Amino acid sequence: MEDYALSFWIYMAVMSVFVGGAVKKILASHISSMPTLVAWLGAIVLVERLCALCMPAVLALGIFCAVCWFYTAWAAPAPALPVEGKAVFITGCDSGFGNATVKHLDAMGFQVFATVLDLEGEGARHLKSVCSPRVSLLQVDITQPQQIQQALLDTKAKLGMKGLWGLVNNAGLCVNFGDAELSLMSNYRGCMEVNFFGTVMVTKTFLPLLRQSKGRIITISSPSGEQPFPCLASYGASKAALNLFINTLRHELEPWGLKFSTILPSAFRTGQCRNTDYWEKQHKHLIQNLSPSLLEEYGEEYILETKDLFQNHAKTASEDLSPVVNTIVEALLSPQPSVRYYTGAGVRLMYFICSYFPVSISDKFLEKLFVKKKVMPRALRKQNGLGTLLSHSLNNNNNNNNINNNNNISKIE
Ligand SMILES: *[C@@H]1O[C@H](CO)[C@@H](O)[C@H](O)[C@H]1NC(C)=O
Fold first, then answer.
1. Which residue pairs from 133-139 have beta carbons closer than 8 angstroms and sit at least 24 positions apart in sequence?
2. Which of 152, 195, 323, 348 is positioned for an S-S bond with 238, CB 3.0–4.6 A?
3. Ligand 1 atom nearest residue 127's Cα
4. CATH fold of 87-265+325-350
5. What tens digit of pLDDT does each residue of 316-348 get?
6. First-to-last C-alpha distance (Å) of the chain
7. Is the model's pTM score more than 0.85?
8. Residue nearest to atom 7 of ligand 1 (CA)
9. Domain coordinates of the chain in residue numbers?
């Protein structure tokens, strides 16, 4: 009897976590998460029954795992669609995922239209030298509507009667990163201009072609568009806007037979990651353009640490881009592509923690995952140094006075 009571409470605890998770999922659900939800609820009921029958914990757990395994195995991928005759348009192929994806799709036999910022650049030259003549390189800056229009005309001319099967919205950039308060407006606008407005324009321009062929739209987004990663507010906000746009299109265009997938990759070494010159320049630009009062309150050493941490983080990012490339292929060829793909080490765990744990824990987790700041803003360090006898608010006031004395009155740009 004693044993029964103990295992009962253990099961109750475990189940409340799972049921709580399920409820949260229901609240934030869309159609695609229904199968997972059903499996989840089924598993809960099963565990509950076992618990009622007073089974040994190990056995119950074993059966629970078997159910999960069965579900995963049962959802095994269906045979892929044929590549033959399919054309794909992909943006941002100067480097990173674009560079890798074009080569892979070309090798598989797709007809590829790849946009690059610079037709004479290293990336374009590399693609020209290694790809088959099925690859057409197009010069497009996705912030320039007339260049996108020209790319549409060129693509149509090459396709002839054939439709376009896929659009891969890959082009994107992170102008700079840093605390949201310290990020310049040019940083927010720069991210929006490319990641949001640029991608919206490309998608709108190519939709008529894609509707003809009941094709696929695949968008490379970022978990930072959904979770509040420190120092990624400007990039994340632009991806968040993009996610909502794509998600809305997804159900509006379902009657047309179009399928949308969004890929949420973890940290991969792409873009300007390795370009130390770029980050040095951005850092200098930030320091020069920050208001003196902000610079004083946060301190240059704080901003410098953020830059160094980011560069170190970039070094640990995965160099093997194939998980993302393979996911793009799956989204292009699976008979039932997922609405969302989590790709790369740790993304699923991150989403699990951010979805099912309290904010206090998930915030800490995100801080540990990305830039682990050790340096406190200068004003907060001074404040702590004032001693423990003073109350917090008094402390604050003293400190603000100090700063204002040093800098006169803060200027707001
Ligand atoms: C493109 O990918 C290849 C590896 O497949 C790499 O050697 C090359 O440097 C990449 N180009 C750019 C510009 O990233």
1. 134/106, 134/109, 134/110, 135/102, 135/106, 136/112, 137/93, 138/113, 138/114, 139/115
2. 195
3. 1
4. Rossmann fold (3.40.50)
5. 888 899 999 999 999 999 999 999 999 988 888
6. 71
7. no
8. 126
9. 2-74, 87-265+325-350
